[in-house]
Amino acid sequence: MNIEQANAEAVARMMEARPILVGMGRARDSIPAMKDNLLLHAGPPIAWERMSGPLRGAVIGALIFEGLAKDEPGARRMVERGEIEFDSAHHHQAVGPMAGVISPSMAVYVLENKTHGNRAYSNLNEGYGKVLRYGANSDEVLKRLRWMNDVMAPLLADALAASDGGVDMKALLAEALHMGDEGHNRLKAGSLLFLRALAPQIAKVAKKNDDLAEILKFMGDTPLTSLNAVMAACKAMADAAHGIAGSTVVTTMARNGTDFGIRVSGLGDQWFIAPAEVPQGLYFPGFKAEDANRDIGDSTITETAGIGGFAMAAAPAIVTFVSGKPKDAINTTLEMYEIATTDHKYFTIPYLDFRGTPVGIDVRKVVEKGITPRVNTGIAHKDAGIGQIGAGLVRPPMAIFEQAVIAMAEQVGK
Question: Fewest beta carbons less than 10 Å away: which of 94, 113, 129, 218?
């Protein structure tokens, strides 16, 4: 099989994947190879010594949440004694936004790709403010996480079990793109569609009106409430395209707050890694670029699957959050067609006469044309505990695509 045929097969599998939110579970019971002393994180693998402030803060919070440590000093001692293991969530078919930390007791979405049979997982979205994914680990943060785990997640699990086949996340995304979302930083429509799909079943299984009201308000007040399920859906799509011999299509883009890494369909599980950049964008009052951490999170799986920054022309209002003008959103999508394998069959953009979004990042085109992918992202403070300080745009370092092209050439030459 030549490269063009391999890429066509990889992208066809990505587009034809049909990820359905089928249920909820605990990470230790659902995620493959999860262990009681294992914490998963966003991005490529990284050791504690190189972790950024937000990722360290999330690790500490997760250990306290699990009851493995009583406080921050105790959590640090556990890590420094080597009692805790870390791994990339991507190695376990999982994804998480920003720090992306998933601990064994956390509730996770379970998505199944009905076309190809693979599964993907993600934790639940905490909303805005001081949250674990940005490295916050105060009592307020942990109290919210425990409520989500002990009250909200069981009701969502029961609601999905009572539903007629779960939630079709691919169909949800296709509709959200026609309603002004781009699927990454702007999911206002998608989150309302998500709530619409689940609310009747939640109401049916809820035993306490107070719990019902609190859950519906929490989900309705959180414009990114569907993000984590969307990310897992995109992970299921991208994983379906992985492992095609000869393919130069990117199937993973992810950041851990220190490094930016990619994986390529035809190059197995090898990571290509370089230092992550600091996003450029709009900062909340009182913060500036010097406060920002390097880019962090698995949410770039959305761009990998052909939405997010690649679909900005569908969501011109996103620029009020990430900076720029509406024409910049359109130009971003037009630029991404230059490095994509094809137009998406199912994700389309009304403003571009319903042209499909650019999908299937080809590392050869990235290097040949000197155009790296565009990513929409939140901006975390470099210190743990402060949280989100803005939002903006970022590009991966060109070096990782150059590394992948060299590796592919070496593979072909063998």
Answer: 129
Minimal CA–CA distance to 346: which of 337, 338, 355? 355
d(CA 145, CA 126): 7
Q: Is the dihedral of CA 395, 397, 402, 407 positive or negative?
A: negative
pLDDT class for 260, splitting at 50, 70, 90?
A: very high
* First-to-final CA distance of the chain: 15
Q: Measuring CA to CA, which residue among 132, 118, 128 is closest to residue 40?
A: 132
CB–CB of 79/126 below 8 Å?
Answer: no
User: Quick one: which of 55, 60, 112, 49 has its CA closest to 89?
Assistant: 55
Q: How far apart are CA 340 and CA 354, in angstroms?
A: 17
Query: 110: which strand partners?
Result: 23, 121
> Which residue ranges form the domains of the chain, and what is each CATH number?
15-230 (3.90.1710.10), 243-413 (3.90.1700.10)
Torsions phi, psi for 66 (to 5 deg): -75, -15
- The arithmetic mean of pLDDT across residues 94-118, rounded, is 98
* Per-residue CA distances from 346 to 165, 237, 321, 362 (Å): 21, 13, 26, 20
CA quadruple 236, 175, 157, 166: dihedral, nearest 10: -80
